[in-house]
Write a structure and sequence with these properties.
By secondary structure, the protein is an alpha/beta fold. It has two domains: 6-187 and 225-258, 3-Layer(aba) Sandwich (Rossmann fold), CATH 3.40.50; 188-224, no CATH class. It has eight helices and seven strands. The chain has helices at 15-26, 39-50, 66-80, 103-131, 152-172, 190-203, 207-218, 227-238, and strands at residues 6-9, 30-34, 56-59, 85-88, 134-139, 177-184, 249-252. The protein has a seven-stranded parallel β-sheet with strand order 3-2-1-4-5-6-7, with helices on both faces. Strand 5, helix 5 and strand 6 form a beta-alpha-beta unit. Helix 1 runs parallel beside helix 2. The longest helix has 29 residues, at 103-131. It starts with 5 loop residues before the first strand and ends in a 7-residue tail after the last strand. The model has no long low-confidence stretch (mean pLDDT 98). The structure holds nicotinamide-adenine-dinucleotide. Nicotinamide-adenine-dinucleotide binds at residues 10-11, 13-17, 34-37, 62-64, 89-92, 112-113, 139, 141, 184, 186-187, 189-192.
């Protein structure tokens, strides 16, 4: 059903985005990869996607720059003839208490995790409206629904993207376009590995002890969510069965936000 459609997955050179790109490619979707990465990594990820028999391109857009996002949307249409699915996934984290939170880090987290999704949604909607079909999927977080200390910019951006999702859903309702956010709990990616390393150093723990401590604090399953599981949810949201799911936030968090 998705065969031959085209998707942009921002931040797909790593972690969750890479898993989402794999899952969509597995359904026959042509993929525009994006993210900061060296040439060797880009080649590796391109090779992984090519194995699914779909077309793949890479665009180096910095998602904090609206003109670069517009150019990436244009490049996607040029390469694949359309832009049917956009997964706003690129994200960064910075951890510090509010009164010590560096101003430039606030700006960077808001630009990367929130404004980027506004830019891509703004540029892609006319294309999706023309096709009377589209899927915009925003990768929020459990931190889009609940807070943790020391993550003021991240929590603000993720709550913001859950709200942006609802506005997008209302403005597109009944048009064949849906917009939803996915709210993962802990996923073992480079973004979280940094937090595990910091916890291990600070609390003098082994890596395994730090992982268990991190999970135990928030995620009742005490198991990491995987990029493959999030990819599976993205594929479902792109299916006909999800036609009437719009403006929703779907948790995939081992019980984190059930507490
Ligand atoms: P990651 O660090 O493995 O990957 C982040 C990706 O975003 C990379 O490809 C990176 O190059 C890209 N990126 C960062 N800034 C960019 C920019 N300005 N322009 C273009 N690309 C940029 O992180 P991840 O854990 O895979 O996170 C992906 C998304 O999932 C993020 O939005 C994150 O907030 C969210 N998330 C992660 C977890 C988790 O536990 N890992 C949980 C909930 C939500």
């Amino acid at each position: 059903m998705l065969k031959g459609k085209a998707a942009i997955v921002t931040g797909s050179t790593s972690g969750i985005g890479r898993g989402i790109a794999h899952a969509l490619a597995g359904q026959g979707v042509n993929i525009m990869l994006n993210g900061f990465a060296d040439a060797a990594t880009v080649d590796t990820v391109k090779g992984e996607i090519t194995k699914f028999g779909v077309k793949v391109e890479y665009n180096a857009a910095d998602v904090t720059k609206p003109d670069q996002i517009a150019a990436m949307v244009d490049a996607t249409v040029k390469a694949f003839g359309s832009c049917d699915v956009v997964v706003n996934n690129a994200g960064i984290q910075f951890v510090a208490p509010i009164d010590k939170f560096p101003l430039d880090k606030w700006d960077a987290v808001i630009a990367t995790n929130l404004s980027s999704a506004f830019y891509s949604t703004r540029y892609v909607l006319p294309i999706m409206r023309g096709k009377k079909w589209g899927r915009i999927i925003n990768i929020a977080s459990a931190h889009g629904l609940v807070a943790s200390e020391d993550k003021v910019a991240y929590v603000s951006a993720k709550h913001g993207i859950v709200g942006m999702t609802k506005v997008t859903a209302l403005e597109t309702a009944g048009s064949g376009i849906t917009c939803n956010s996915i709210c993962p709990g802990w996923v073992l990616t480079p973004l979280v590995q940094k937090q595990i390393d910091a916890m291990a150093a600070e609390d003098k723990l082994s890596e395994d002890q730090a992982k268990l401590k991190l999970l135990s604090e928030k995620q009742p399953s005490k198991q990491f969510v995987t990029p493959e599981q999030i990819g599976g949810l993205v594929v479902f949201l792109c299916s006909d069965a999800a036609d009437q799911i719009t403006g929703a936030h779907l948790s995939i968090d081992g019980g984190w936000t059930a507490q």
